[in-house]
Every structure is written in C-alpha cells, then in structure tokens.
Give the backbone structure.
Amino acid sequence: MPHISIRGLQKRFGGVAVINDLDLEMADREFTVLVGPSGCGKSTTLRMIAGLEDTSGGEIWIGGREVSGLDPKDRDIAMVFQDYALYPHMNVARNMSFSLRLAGTPPREIEERVKRVADMLSIGHLLERKPAALSGGQRQRVAMGRALVRDASVFLFDEPLSNLDAKLRNQMRAELAVMRKRVEKNMIYVTHDQIEAMTLADRIVVMHQGRIQQQGSPEDLYKRPANKFVAGFIGSPPMNFLSGELNGSDDRLAIAGDGFHVPVPEAKRAAMENRTTRRIDMGIRPSALKPVGESQSDPAIGSITLTVLVSEYIGAQSVLVCECGGQRVTAEVASDTPFAASAPMRFAVDPAGVHLFDPETEAAL
Ligand SMILES: Nc1ncnc2c1ncn2[C@@H]1O[C@H](COP(=O)(O)OP(=O)(O)O)[C@@H](O)[C@H]1O
Ligand SMILES: [Mg+2]
C-alpha cells in the first residue's frame, strides 16, 4: 500500500484553478521531489498535504487514513519552510526540542532525540549556541533538525535551501543527499531547482501550470522525457529545440532543416510511420553535439552546422552558444575544442541525445 495517496486533488483561489486533478502515490520511505517553475503550484500542493490550506476537491490519504478534514496537528507530518524562523532567545537544543516539549515528551527522550538528529546534521557541537551565533547554513540545519526530531510519518520541505547563497546551497544539497539515506522516512521535497531534484530524489514529479507533466526516476526523466516541457526543464544546459521536417524513408529517415540533417534514431522510426504532417520538433542535448572536421561527411551519422556566437568557459567544459538558421543552439564541448567565432562549424549528433516531439501536442514521439 502506498504511504501517501493523492486523488483528484483540486485547488481554486477565487475562480482561478491552480491545481488541476492531481493524482500522486508515494511508496513508503520514498524521497519524492516536486519540481517545477515558480507559480506552478508546488507550495499549494504541499500546504494542502500539511493541512495549512483547504482543498477544493479530491482526497489526501496518509498511512491509510483520509486526512483532508483533519487539523494539521492530527496529520502526523512535520514541515520545513523556505523562510524558517528560529526562536532567537533559545539555544539550538531548545529550538530543536520546542515541539517535543510542547507535546510533553519526557526530558530524557527529548535529549536523546535532539542529540541523535543533531549528530546526523553535524550540529551536535552547536547545541548551546543561540541562532545569532550561527552561520546561515547552520541555521538552516537547525530548522531541519527541529522538524526531524519529531516522530512524524511524513516530512515536508518547501524550498529549504533557496535562501542560501550558491556555494552553501551546493554544500547543503550534498549533505542532504547523505542525510536522506540515514533517515528512513517519507519525504516530500519541493524545489524549483532541477539539479536539486535530480541529486536528491528517488522519484521526481515535474509540475507545470498546476498539472503533473511526468513522474519517474531522475534517469527516466532525463532519458525519456514525456513531452517538450519536461525535456526542456530537466538537464543543464537545457535541451536545444529545432523545428524541422521529416524526409527520406526507412533507414534514411531524417529530420532536416536549414543547416541540419539528423537521422531519426532507430528506436523512433516506427513512431514516424503514421504521421500526417512532416513537421517535427527535434530536441538535442547540448552534450550530444560532437565537433567534427569538414572531411568527415557520413550522412548516416547526421550533422548540424552551427555558427558560434560566444563560448562560455566553465572549466573542463565550455558551452558554445551558437546559431543555426535563425534558431539558437548550445553545444557542450571540451574547453580545449578549437573554434572560430562567426564561422560555420560542423557537429555530429549522438542519436542517444536526440528526442522528437509533436509540434502540436508537444508530446514525445
Ligand atoms: N493565497 C493565495 N491566493 C491567491 N492565489 C494564490 C494564493 N497562493 C498561491 N496562489 C497562486 O497559486 C499559484 C501557485 O502558487 P504556489 O503554489 O505558491 O506556486 P509555487 O510554490 O510552485 O511557486 C500561483 O499562481 C499563485 O499566485
Ligand atoms: Mg513555492
């Protein structure tokens, strides 16, 4: 039995629907990440699960119980917010134990739990300090610890790292990834950052405009995006999209346009058979573009000719920002790859990084 089951969840603010018919099941001890752009309904979904927001329809089941009508405190959940506030006059230990003291947990047990969670979060040596004497990252850990000491069956996190600077965020992300292996609990983690989603999740749920676009393992979503939205959202730098036309037949079937001719990957040929329009949107991962010399011209490999506008040096790799028949394309290449700005440059296309989409429905083909 799934630990959490959400069926036909709806939310309207005034007349505006922000969550539409959301269905979601989470296995026990699964770390689920809800990811999507700002405003897509992540926080609203989490707040409805927590009971901080009424639903406009649908059901929420936790541990075999329908909880939609229950008070937040009766739902067996703990939540960490984006703008966590610690009590400034209490030290770390008292901040962490606040809810346990409120619940009348025996002092021995409180001490034990606080110590265990504090060690897990590497803040065991800070228990006597007040929040003012902590760094941003340490405060963030205390806020998490405050939730984790509770014996809840579900932990909800709403963008807990988004107030940290980039370096600290990367560091905390790695620590969270370690921590989450130690805490065998149900966690639902909300973020707009696809890298956070990819590195932390057992299962990612991609949302857009109040609807689930796709759910699956990080690898599923990266390798088999269900539609153009997911394809463009998951992966960094983002996937390139080029509109082209289907031409040729059988093993010569290709997508072609101004400056490119890319064979249809074998696995996708069958899907091309019944198409009524020749127009196709092609997605190419920036890492699937491999620079080749002019001499190599095997039409079976497929190629694309790009004009490099700028090169963004990021260390071992560079991102070449290019143009192809008026469409913008980025290629991720070894940073010692020679190139000349404004001159045409040929790339072979790795079929594993090629995705095809219906231009009308945007569904993957
Ligand atoms: N209390 C509210 N009243 C009216 N509209 C709201 C309220 N809370 C959120 N919304 C709207 O609902 C949509 C989803 O918001 P939210 O769940 O906060 O998105 P996310 O967390 O994904 O950024 C947004 O368009 C937002 O403006
Ligand atoms: Mg939000």
In short: Residues 294 and 346 are 7 Å apart (CA to CA).
